[in-house]
Amino acid sequence: MKLRTRFLCIFSLLSLVSTAQPEWSPAVRAERDTAWLKDSLHLDPAKLQKSYTLSVAYHTSKDKAKQTGGKNKDKNVRKLEQARDADFKKLLTKEQFARFYRREQMARKREKIKYDNQHRPY
Q1: Are the beta carbons of 37 and 51 closer than 8 angstroms?
Q2: Exposed, middle or buried by CB within 10 Å (0-12, 13-18, 19+), for 50?
Q3: Closest CA to 95 of 47, 40, 55, 53
Q4: Mean pLDDT across the chain
Q5: How many angstroms separate the CA atoms of 99 and 102, rounded?
Q6: pTM recorded for the entire structure
Q7: 70: which of 14, 29, 49, 93 lies 20 to 30 Å off by Cα?
Q8: Tens digit of each residue's pLDDT (9 = 90 or more) over 16-43
């Protein structure tokens, strides 16, 4: 009986740990964004550095806006997204920006979907 109880305790602890989603730092998210830009849009090193700087600033501001909460949280996040899009529109060519913007729109749609614990897509 003790072995079975221990097994159940370990299993339940492992299941709790596996469902927790990590919160990535702004720098890590910016690195992932920059890697996608490098692989998909084939940016030169100068543009990659500029995009990394823009992404870190955006993710840091977005985290602050989400933490402050309040009535205007969603409005503030939308303003940040629009500012980021405008900055990247200046940085990228028309074709590159179109691909970037499509990716961002898909990510924003996924972010708005609310999932319960049983039906997460990942």
Answers
A1: yes
A2: middle
A3: 40
A4: 82
A5: 5
A6: 0.70
A7: 29
A8: 544 555 678 999 999 999 999 999 999 9
* Two tokens, residue 23: 């919160």
Whether the Cβ atoms of residue 52 and residue 34 lie closer than 8 Å to each other: yes
DSSP for 45-82 reads: HHHHHHHHHHHHHHHHHHHHHHHH-STTHHHHHHHHHH
Tokens at 78, concatenated: 């939308």
* End-to-end CA separation in angstroms for the chain: 35
> In this structure, are residues 77 and 66 in contact, taking their beta carbons and an 8 Å threshold?
yes
Question: What percentage of the chain carries pLDDT values higher than 70?
Answer: 75
DSSP letter (8 states) at residue 41? I
- Pair of tokens at residue 4: 């079975």
Quick: pLDDT tens for 49-101. Answer: 999 999 999 999 988 988 887 788 888 888 999 999 999 999 999 999 999 99
